[in-house]
Design the sequence.
């Protein structure tokens, strides 16, 4: 065990030690640990990627935790670069406006400040919290006050001292990264108790993970796979209550969860019970659904592997398309290595000329496809399959074929 990794022995939400191994995946390196050419000789550590089910509170989680300082200080994801996300944040801002017309808005994991900027333009006071230095500085340069720190109880007190209570605190795609969510909620409560404020999170939704075979969203940054059943219990146990839930299409399927202090002024909408009923009908509160999910993923992997190996045996060349973080989970679990893929194309400039985590497959620009004329493209960023195919239609018109690995294996 290396210094940046530890393994917890109890549930992150309820502290129970009744954890059952639910989805066993292969060990992987950290999903975003792309390397430069000069680092190719250095071997990269692999960490267990096993998902556990808490039989007490029904929460699904990783127990192998990587030090967040290591994971997030140099984080590069910039929300303002994607048009789809800017639109998402504008809609989100309009939604929040229905609850509070003024006051302090705090965004935890504020990235480049794209979301807060909508509030600032509308006269709200705003503050972002973002530990990734480069991105936080970009937000500050764009006029969004940002604290370059991790959120915790002591930071919540500092903010309260200088800015007072918050009307709304948001945490978008952050809550599943937090190893001590109880302390996180303590900080939230401290900031909203004097304002009857609300706390809104957006997290990937477990129902979508299961129904759409999104197993490759399981990697070390995502410690939690949230269901409303377990989240509702967890918030209740910590003096908060969920009063509304919306389903979103982002990240393959997410939920926006609205919470307030127990007994707060917003009525509890029927959406909360609707989500819980749906989850109970699917059996998300029992271990079997996760064991069946594992079996399904393994059989997709075997089928894909048989196909790729037979193509290689025929002398075909195969390349990958897209090097998102989740490709690391997919490649390690489905044994897609350098013997199968000659190289991987990614449209993001900052990934080109780097090598994939652990397997060190080169990442190049799509110009390589024209020069090398591969026979098959395996789409690793399979959630973007239709736009990747559209962008590379000349490859297809010249006889090339696409392989889409998930949600069901497909050749086009
Ligand atoms: Zn638990």
Sequence:
């Amino acid at each position: 065990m290396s210094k940046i990794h530890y393994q917890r022995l109890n549930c992150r939400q309820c502290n129970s030690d009744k954890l059952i191994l639910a989805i066993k995946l292969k060990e992987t390196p950290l999903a975003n640990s792309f390397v430069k050419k000069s680092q190719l000789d250095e071997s990269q550590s692999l960490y267990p990627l096993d998902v556990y089910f808490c039989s007490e509170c029904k929460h699904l989680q990783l127990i192998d935790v990587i030090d967040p300082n290591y994971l997030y200080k140099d984080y590069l994801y910039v929300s303002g670069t994607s048009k789809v996300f800017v639109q998402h944040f504008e809609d989100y801002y309009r939604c929040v406006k229905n609850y509070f017309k003024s006051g302090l808005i705090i965004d935890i994991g504020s990235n480049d400040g794209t979301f807060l900027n909508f509030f600032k333009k509308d006269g709200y006071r705003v503050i972002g919290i973002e530990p990734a230095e480069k991105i936080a500085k970009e937000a500050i340069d764009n006029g969004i006050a940002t604290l370059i720190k991790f959120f915790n109880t002591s930071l919540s007190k500092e903010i309260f001292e200088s800015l007072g209570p918050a009307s709304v605190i948001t945490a978008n795609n952050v809550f599943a990264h937090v190893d001590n969510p109880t302390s996180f909620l303590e900080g939230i409560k401290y900031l909203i108790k004097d304002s009857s404020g609300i706390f809104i999170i957006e997290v990937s939704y477990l129902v979508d993970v299961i129904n759409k075979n999104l197993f490759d969203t399981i990697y070390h940054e995502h410690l939690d796979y949230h269901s409303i059943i377990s989240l509702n219990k967890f918030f209740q146990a910590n003096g908060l209550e969920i009063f509304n839930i919306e389903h979103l299409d982002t990240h393959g399927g997410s939920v926006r969860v609205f919470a307030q202090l127990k007994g707060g002024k917003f009525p509890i909408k029927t959406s909360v019970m609707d989500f819980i009923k749906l989850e109970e009908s699917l059996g998300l509160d029992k271990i079997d659904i996760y064991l069946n999910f594992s079996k399904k993923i393994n059989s997709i992997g075997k089928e894909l592997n048989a196909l790729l190996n037979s193509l290689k045996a025929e002398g075909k060349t195969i390349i990958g398309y897209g090097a998102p973080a989740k490709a690391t989970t997919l490649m390690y679990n489905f044994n897609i290595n350098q013997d199968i893929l000659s190289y991987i194309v990614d449209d993001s400039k900052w990934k080109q000329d780097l090598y994939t985590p652990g397997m060190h497959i080169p990442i190049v620009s799509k110009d390589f496809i024209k020069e090398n004329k591969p026979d098959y493209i395996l789409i690793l960023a399979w959630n973007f399959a239709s736009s990747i195919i559209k962008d590379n239609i000349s490859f297809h018109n010249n006889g090339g074929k696409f392989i889409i690995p998930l949600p069901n294996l497909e050749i086009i």
Q: What stands out?
A: The mean pLDDT is 95. Residues 74 and 132 are 5 Å apart (CA to CA). The chain has three domains: 5-61, 79-288, 307-411. Residues 79-288 form a domain with the Rossmann fold fold (CATH 3.40.50.150).
